[in-house]
TrEMBL record:
Keyword Transferase carried by entry: yes
Superkingdom as given in the UniProt entry: Bacteria
Source organism of the structure: Roseisalinus antarcticus
InterPro entries, per the entry: COMT-like (IPR016461), COMT_C (IPR001077), SAM-dependent_MTases_sf (IPR029063), WH-like_DNA-bd_sf (IPR036388), WH_DNA-bd_sf (IPR036390)
Keyword S-adenosyl-L-methionine: yes
Gene Ontology MF, one: O-methyltransferase activity
Record Gene3D superfamilies: 1.10.287.1350, Vaccinia Virus protein VP39, Winged helix-like DNA-binding domain superfamily/Winged helix DNA-binding domain
Keywords on record: Methyltransferase, S-adenosyl-L-methionine, Transferase
Protein name: Demethylspheroidene O-methyltransferase
Domain (O-methyltransferase C-terminal) ranges: 118-313
E.C. number(s) listed in UniProt: 2.1.1.210
Record-level GO BP terms: methylation
Length: 335
């Protein structure tokens, strides 16, 4: 700090370090704003601080602290006695599924509350129970659990679909099968862009029927488990969107082999999910997957190697517009 030429750099480094130190507080400010409905309230327009405090049953002096904290994080501003959303705050409130995702992070944070024990694998994680479908079709038969996860997945699919479709061109495809397609949010986005493309969705029996409600006659719905059943044939393109990272290498190898068997020569496989090699992949999704205890975040080149092992031709290069949304690796079945 005493050397003028590097003072600015040192201050920036110091701020970045302090942000790391204070990260938990930042996350809790965000969750507080979601839990208290502040984003939802301010989406309807600016509000005086006292009214916001009264509506949320928070004492005004404490709400003033929360609002200032939200302002410090670039989410809120207070002008002319009214609290309002900044552009970032408004965008955050409007991203489909994001407030729900922030709220469900309390489960992840409980799992991470003793990080040394977490990394030593001494924690019975709650997230492993939140996503029971990963363990197989039997565990997914609880409709309440299935509905909770399906909603979170479908809401967050909008951006994933946008980036996947920007990176994996489907204009030459005739028939796409989305394996692990959930309740059909990805295929709904595909259908809107490619009206002539034939669509099939494959998912567990507890999940797939809901896709029929969303997609209607636009898609054929096939129920089954890719752990136990062969994948239906007929599609010239298969997509696996946010599926591989839920599973260990043995299951992924079997699934990629099944996709290879289901495709004709020249058929195309599209893998889209957050990958290692980015801050989001390594400092968020990797921990999330570890807490789920079933899968892991992989580098694009690892996914590429697994695809090649299954018989696909791929350069294994992950492409991404926004690594925190998704990355894409594609391959072609060799003849
Ligand atoms: C993380 S979700 C992704 C859903 C959707 N592709 C998306 O991106 O929104 C993983 C999906 O894989 C499905 N799945 C998990 N195990 C499966 C299995 N053994 N057979 C078929 N689908 C399975 C789940 O039901 C779930 O819909």
């Amino acid at each position: 700090m005493r050397i003028p030429l590097v003072r600015r750099l040192v201050r920036r480094e110091g701020e970045a370090m302090f942000d790391l130190v204070a990260g938990f507080c930042h996350a809790q400010i965000l969750m507080g704003l979601v839990d208290l409905g502040v984003f939802a309230r301010l989406e309807r327009g600016p509000v005086p601080l006292a009214a916001l405090a009264a509506e949320t049953s928070v004492p005004e002096v404490r709400m003033a602290v929360l609002v200032r904290a939200g302002a410090a994080l670039g989410l809120l501003s207070e002008r002319f006695g009214r609290v309002r959303l900044t552009a970032r705050g408004a965008a955050l409130a409007a991203v489909p599924g994001l407030p729900g995702m922030i709220a469900h992070h309390r489960i992840l944070y409980r799992d991470l509350s003793d990080p040394a024990a977490f990394f030593r694998d001494e924690v019975e994680t709650e997230l492993a129970g939140f996503w029971p479908y990963v363990f197989g079709a039997g565990a997914a038969s609880d409709p309440g659990q299935a509905a909770a996860y399906s909603r979170l997945m479908a809401d967050s699919q909008l951006l994933v679909a946008e980036d996947t479709l920007a990176l994996a061109n489907l204009s030459n495809a005739r028939h796409l099968m989305d394996v692990g397609g959930g309740t059909g949010a990805f295929l709904a986005a595909v259908a809107a862009r490619h009206p002539a493309l034939r669509l099939t969705l494959f998912d567990l029996p507890a999940v797939a029927p809901e896709a029929a409600t969303r997609l209607g006659p636009r898609a054929e719905i096939r129920s089954g488990s890719f752990r136990d059943d062969p994948l239906p044939c007929g599609a010239d393109t298969i997509s696996l969107v946010r599926v591989l990272y839920d599973h260990d290498d043995t299951t992924v190898r079997a699934l990629l082999a099944a996709a290879h068997a289901a495709l004709p020569a020249g058929g195309r496989l599209i893998v889209s999910e957050p990958m290692s090699g980015s801050r989001a992949g390594d400092a968020y999704f990797a921990l999330y997957c570890m807490a789920m205890r079933t899968g892991r975040v992989r580098r694009a080149r690892e996914i590429g190697a697994l695809m090649r092992e299954a018989g696909f031709q791929t350069d294994g290069k992950g492409r991404s517009r926004r690594p925190f949304v998704t990355s894409v690796v594609t391959g072609v079945r060799k003849s």
